[in-house]
Protein 1
Amino acid sequence: MSKLNDIPVSVEAASGNVIPLLHEIRHALKRVADGQDGTIIDLRSLPLAPGEDDRIETILGKGELHAELDALGPTVIQETSYAGVWLVTHRNTEGEIVARFIEVTRLPDILKSQDEDIELAIRKLQDELDVGTGETAPALEAAAAD
Amino acid sequence: MRKGQTLGEYLQAQGVSRRGFLKFCSATASLMALPPSAVSQVAEALATARRPSVIWLSFQECTGCTESLTRSHAPTVESLIFDAISLDYHHTLQAAAGTGAEAAREAAMDENLGEYLLVVDGSIPIGNPAYSTIAGMSNLDMLKASAQNAAAIIAVGTCAAFGGIPHANPNPTGAVSVSEIIKDKPIINVSGCPPIPVVITGTLAHFLAFGEIPELDELGRPTVFFGQNIHDRCYRRPFYERGQFAKTFDDEGARKGWCLYELGCKGPTTYNACATVKWNEGTSFPIGSGHGCLGCSEPDFWDHGSFYTPISAGLWGSRETLLGAAAAGTALGVGAAMAARARKKKAQAEKEADAT
């Protein structure tokens, strides 16, 4: 027996929390369909047996939309095969998971452009147009020549 | 992060977008065991939070608590929280040494009178002050002097919170906890040997975000992390309910991941977040790795008999009565766990009676 994986351990542990979690998601989905607020479930708050994280992910499957965000490390926002149920995994710059949520909503907030960033974008674009340097310089020069 | 700068300003200066900030707040809320719905409150509070001065004192300790925090830190979230405090004094981490180090501590205390956060790891020997001194100053004197103008104290680790291993029988140094000496300051006990790193940073984050101490249990521990016992949150609990126990560490039950109660697991009497938060970036925890809980976040855990003797054996006298007790526990179900604290008090009383 030379490798750790060779040790014959078969874990049959089950916390019993997977099915109740799926019921919770179904109830949350019904609320969204009825026009009420969405629900966010922190997977770290649940006692899960080894392998149950993966089981949940397998049951939920993958849907049409997959988005990646690069802010303080990568974040993956995956719509599951159940419309309105999203799996959001936040990682740090070293790739370690720092938080994992199931969001039951039409669109996770983190995907939307944020007001503060939009305001900053307006200022930045205005500065660019005022100064006329960088990427916009050739276009501005051409406009002035016309 | 410069003095007077808010955390929001600091993150913006670092080029962190609002979206990145929300991610940071989501992870922080998760760290603090707050519901995800609290993210907007955390964002609002953290955006305006100012950098608190932190003085970290290490007394009779093994540096395991600092190692727990610094060796397993998750950059960008926990380290940002760590960046968001001004760590003005810490034996292991500071660059200064000798009189320069002590001058830094005194300067931080003077400049942040009544506002600095005092973190203590290690117990304090009162049997003879010379057992542990820093710069010629006894731990007792340094604690009293540093606590005098602190806003609050966080006792990190079981040694600072309850005396820990130095306090274990026969306690040769007369080791005591912080709360046995300081009576006029709010004290947060973050117990564990060592504590889970995210529990340390989660407690710091709470103070940083809300400027106040979190709700505490009767032992002074944040209820968000210590409000439920390991047993109640253990994924092996269904096996306990069904009376399926591993009898040895290599039998069929052990291989199938059955309950470790009979192998001495202290989960039913131990309050901590290991079963949910877990260790090593949420990878596992002792029970998940096939070993019972040692009960390290509880007072006098070192003196509660063998780690491999079932809890019930200490209460009813012999291991033979265990099976009956376990069966009763199975029948009682949730009631057994609810009675855990009472059983523990009884065991403690019996132990003290035996000692006298």
Protein 2
Amino acid sequence: MKTLLVLGCGNRLGEPAEGWQVINHDRTHHRAEVNYVADLDVRPWPWADNSADAIVARAVFEHLHIGLEESMAECWRILKPGGILTGTMPLWNTEKAHGDPTHRRCITTLTMGYFDPSTKEGAAALIYEWHPWELLSQSLVGKKDSVRFKLRPRKD
Amino acid sequence: MDTLVLGCGEKPMADAVNHDRIKHRPEVDIAHDLDIFPWPWPDNSFDLIVACAVLEHLRCTLIESMAECWRILRPGGQIHVKIPYWNHANSYADPTHYWRFDISTLEFFDPDTKLGRQYGFYADQRPWRIIKAPVLNPGRSSIIALLEVRK
């Protein structure tokens, strides 16, 4: 059985698939399908090391008080080797990024490169709490106001 | 003249105390997390602080970090500061940037400016004087300025 962890699922639940267990996490139990409640600003997050095959974080990290490098460190820890993180965050120069009063940060289409040592940004990164990732993609989506990213932890 | 380089990164200076969050190269003289107060220097320790591309990496506000700089500078001491400009992608690309600023931001610290008079209560116990007015760098990604403590 593989595990899909949907962080801050809101109303976009993980789609059940054959052989997959879906954890629909959110900060409150705002609908019946939410089957894991936790505050992601409290570290460590309540999932074990190497316990998820995939993590989905759509429009989540920008709402947290903890830093992006800290959220990425938690995802790195929880994903199994070969696991995949996908998600979105708001693009910096958009109304969407700054309009929501619960948004604490926004990014560009370079930001996720800081976590991959094989990119220009990652090679120069001086990040205090940093684990290496392989950046698979980062690009604009939606009305070109969100950055979608896909990464795999380097756990060799 | 005693100089402190905060968050020296890959640009440590000769004849200065080079600080960074971790001792990642031998030139780093002292490692400290600047979000932990007080910073590890006594009052009135330095004549010059160089803070280029460092204060935006802290969780604490610019009011708080500038207050610590004020404390450890001697009377007449100056700070050379470089901070990211709000309207440039570079200011948002780095995942460890917590702040971006406007050209007007540093005026809040100088009671001789309009904003400093209006909002000086933010920094009223730690006033500064703007020596070189804040300007954008040629790439328009950062603000550079020189300020002097009023003690």
